[in-house]
Amino acid sequence: MGGVTGTLVLAGTPIGDIADAPPRLAEELAGADVVAAEDTRRLRRLTQALGVTPKGRVVSYFEGNESARTPELVEELVGGARVLLVTDAGMPSVSDPGYRLVAAAVERDVRVTAVPGPSAVLTALALSGLPVDRFCFEGFLPRKAGERLGRLREVAGERRTLVYFEAPHRLDDTLAAMAEVFGAERRAAVCRELTKTYEEVRRGGLGELAAWAAEGVRGEITVVVEGAPERGAEEVGAEELVRRVRVREEAGERRKEAIAAVAQEAGVPKRQVFDAVVAAKNAAT
């Protein structure tokens, strides 16, 4: 390790129930030279609940100061310090601060290790009732409707189970967009307040879940969506081909490119998609 003696420790913190804290977390909090926390107030509540007092310096490390503070922490590490990184909940760097610090530490040959802990991604996936053998984590979707549709369109043919984080006030719009792009019958699960008092897992088709979410939902949200089904060319009907083209057009694609992309995705000739689009247009006039 080039003589470097410092260590960066990424520590998982409870996503809800404090009893889920890994035993090593208290040890690391008590012994680290520097504790970098996403929210120092939440860290104080965590240490009080665990009955530990950090001996080291406590600093904030959040989205707003991540770029500026990373070099400072790296110098601490190069100088031999043991730096513990914790976020508000779950594992650092997974849709939370941490990636920049890990990358910078690795660049300087600093040892990086972890205290494994709870993960909303894996917990929601396990509770969803959907296939877990292959999955991909997509994080948060863009806030703007057009960008959100575009991102969903990119994974419309993804056969692995998809996992997303979402804010409660955007959940209904997100589920509606998913229903539009993936199809209203695509199975999904909305996991709310995992491991907390009001934990809830709502399962159903995306259309059904979008209608439910329109009434208002609170809490921390993780959405798990079934992957695209394997379909042969004969299984994709004209109506579905037209819907896929429409989704792509609404996301900004030209019709020619949308038809070509849908044909490739569905495994059918471009002419078949073109004819379906023309027939649907004539039927509407």
TrEMBL record:
Its main location: cytoplasm. CDD domains: RsmI. Residues 7-210 form the Tetrapyrrole methylase domain. The keyword Methyltransferase applies. It is found in: Cytoplasm. It holds the Pfam family TP_methylase. It catalyses: cytidine(1402) in 16S rRNA + S-adenosyl-L-methionine = 2'-O-methylcytidine(1402) in 16S rRNA + S-adenosyl-L-homocysteine + H(+). This is Ribosomal RNA small subunit methyltransferase I. It comes from Streptomyces azureus. The lineage of its organism: Bacteria, Bacillati, Actinomycetota, Actinomycetes, Kitasatosporales. The gene is rsmI.
